[in-house]
């Protein structure tokens, strides 16, 4: 996104049916490979990356909001504001602003109301405005820092079975 645009699933198209294409070209006949791709004897191999696939991988900038509870924040106070917070987050998701979000469950400085949110925003001021609108922040339950974050690697896997009505998130 390079700080000014938005990322969408349509940017990584080119495979059969307009879906994502594996680095290095279309899939081999017979459909998708097993999770992790083809493996050579002795273990997995990293795929070769062409300049084109690197250009799709690098340079996706987002804004990471690190939320830290105030010293006197209790779980009860978080629970009292949770419905407003979740409704606000779902609004960000519907507007295409929210990339991912969730509470921090352990580690230094975690407590009721701590979490990480990654958003799409044009610049740091816009990201700060989004973070400041959080109902938890508005209620004085937590504060935040904003960091420009570049997504370079990772994978997302989703299997939806229409027949059984199940979702498998990997």
Q: Roughly what is the average pLDDT, rounded to an integer? A: 76
* N- to C-terminal distance: 24 Å
The radius of gyration computed from the alpha-carbon positions, rounded to a whole number of angstroms, is: 20 Å
How would a textbook summarize the main sheet? 4 strands, antiparallel
CATH superfamily of the domain at 60-151: Dimeric alpha+beta barrel
Count of discrete alpha- or pi-helical segments spanning 4 or more residues: 4
Percentage of residues in strands: 25-35%
Order of helices and strands: EEHEHEEHHEEE
Strand order of the largest sheet: 4-5-3-6
Could you give the count of β-strands? 8
CATH C-level class of the domain at 60-151 is: Alpha Beta
What are the segments in which pLDDT stays under 50 over at least 5 consecutive residues? 1-40
Proportion in helices: 10-25%
Secondary-structure arrangement, i.e. CATH architecture of the domain at 60-151: 2-Layer Sandwich
Write up this protein.
This protein is of the alpha+beta class. It has a domain of 92 residues: Dimeric alpha+beta barrel (Alpha-Beta Plaits). It is 24% helix and 25% strand. The protein has four helices and eight strands; from the N terminus they run E-E-H-E-H-E-E-H-H-E-E-E. It has a four-stranded antiparallel β-sheet with strand order 4-5-3-6. It has a two-stranded antiparallel ribbon with strand order 1-2. The longest helix has 20 residues.
């Amino acid at each position: 996104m390079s700080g000014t645009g938005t990322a969408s699933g349509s940017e990584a198209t080119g495979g059969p049916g307009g879906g994502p294409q594996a680095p290095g070209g279309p899939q081999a006949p017979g459909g998708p490979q097993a999770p992790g791709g083809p493996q050579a004897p002795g273990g997995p191999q990293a795929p070769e990356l062409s300049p084109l696939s690197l250009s799709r991988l690098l340079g996706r900038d987002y804004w990471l909001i690190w939320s830290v509870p105030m010293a006197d924040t209790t779980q009860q106070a978080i629970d009292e504001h949770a419905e407003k917070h979740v409704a606000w987050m779902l609004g960000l998701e519907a507007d295409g602003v929210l990339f991912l979000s969730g509470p921090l469950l352990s580690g230094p400085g975690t407590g009721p109301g701590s979490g990480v949110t990654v958003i799409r925003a044009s610049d740091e001021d816009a990201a700060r405005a989004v973070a400041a609108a959080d109902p938890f922040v508005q209620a004085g339950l937590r504060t935040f820092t904003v960091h420009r974050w570049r997504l370079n690697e990772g994978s997302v896997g989703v299997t939806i079975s229409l027949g059984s009505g199940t979702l498998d998130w990997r």
